[in-house]
Design a protein that fits this description.
eight-stranded mixed β-sheet, alpha+beta, four-stranded antiparallel β-sheet
Amino acid sequence: MAQIDPSSILPLVEIPSARAPACSPTGDAVAFIDDRSGMPQLWIIEDGEARQLTDHPEPVNSFAWSPIGTQILFTADCGGDERWQLYLLQPETGAIRALTADPMTVHMWGAFSPDGQQIAFTANDRQKDQLDLRVMELATGAVQAVAEAAGHQEVLSFAPDGASLLVRRTLGAASDQKLELVEIATGRRSPVLDADRRVKFAAARMLKAGGGLALCDFEGDRMALWGFDQHGASTGCVFRAEGCDLDAFAREPDQDSAVVTINEDGFCRLARVNLTTGESRPLAVPLDGVVTGLTVPAGGNVALCAVAGAANPSAIWELPLSGDTAVKRHGAEPLPGEVEAELSAFNSFDGLRVPFFLYRPKGEAPPSGWPAVFIIHGGPEMQWRPEWRADVQWLVRQGIMVVAPNVRGSTGYGRRYHGLDDREKRLNSLVDLTALRAYLVADGTVDGARTCVFGRSYGGYMVMAALAETPDLWRCGVNFYGIGNFATHLLATGPWARQIRVAEYGDPATDAEMLARISPVNRIDRVRAPLLMVHADRDPRVPPCESEIINSLMFGLGRRCDFLRISHEGHGFKRIDNIRRVFGTLAEFIAQEL
């Protein structure tokens, strides 16, 4: 192997990305989020030129155009604490008006009313573990409470007449949800696509002609596009992709057709669907990867989206619905010679087929196989997908293979697969990781003496579980803001989302013994491998105490643990100086230990 160069990671992490494009209602401008200024901010393309719209002191999280087209609402928090505040921007002048100003309250953005005079959102100002419905008159700032408390809920849209809200309520885990129409004047709730089983609603929108569309697993194992009438009753499945989940949909302006994204083993493909007949035809994607932020602007001639691939940073694209060649509107160029993701799968310990991605270094493999970093995705209700990762491309350039599995519990493979790691089955996903490592070592692909395990958030938990449960298998570990102790995690995590995490992991009141068994902190004496941990001080999802206690215990045991604390960031890193520091430290650690 050539000498590892830690400094060479910095140019890769500095490559900007663009995401979440949205066309103005008048069709003459496209707004999007770009981080080339050093952290995510709002940008706009007008007359073919891109310019920065905001220079907010905090990263911009999300935004929406007003239906009247002269205003943009955007959200931002303080230091990544996810207590979102709402702001109204005048694109022409740059003037910004703060609509909320309570730094201890989460304001979950929802939607504009059809006439642009009101907004709807949810907030936990009344009780920190409840997100209540709110409607604000933009002219006066007056806020109306809508309906009685109902736990964790989000506004998806207004009804076309502006009198009701389409609301998604999460009852337990993120895969157990209800869809409702809520009358603003009375608070009366009416079920939409009501079922006597657990349903996940990924998205839903109303149609001008009445009723609407929802992306959900209303019947069966997979996410499909379903219709409902003005009373909320099912009108049947509009479109499904056999053996695949749908990721998203965007209605065309005439609302007779829609463009859908299909998740095919992590890769995205697109289809244009007739909403009356269900007939579809494929729509070309400009590169192998993942499509996000899909919309069809007024005019209905193109789909607007962000596209990212393993070797392509996220950029803004226009995809002509006619099938003509796609046009990139804004974004970094693909890097020549970068490595694409290879999709593969193996049979795990119980015969379950588990998919994984390989990022293979160029050139001839060493006789003993490649040194390898196994990266476990977060969530756990997530999926590793072939998107741009600067750290992955840096590792491969250094002659290190990257292995990224979608162990049981991952999304994208249906409800049954997603539920295979719930509660007492938690460690079965770790056995998948161990079995995959053995599989790749046995066939000579990976050098068994030089394997590292790396993960962020829930992936960081998997790192600690791997080092504690199978300590002799790993040369080193890298844990970014991972869970160490489920009891303290569930006590200190943001209360507005605690019920979702309790439903996924277990209830400390009734499942204390099980949670203690799967918490790595209780087996930390078994960890032998050098460990790098990184955690930010304002993380609302996995509080920094999770890493602090692991670091203290490793120090007490005399084991190597490098701990990097980051200030004024949350669950991840948004500021370029912090990103340079975090990934520069990662590169130094890998150079020393692998």
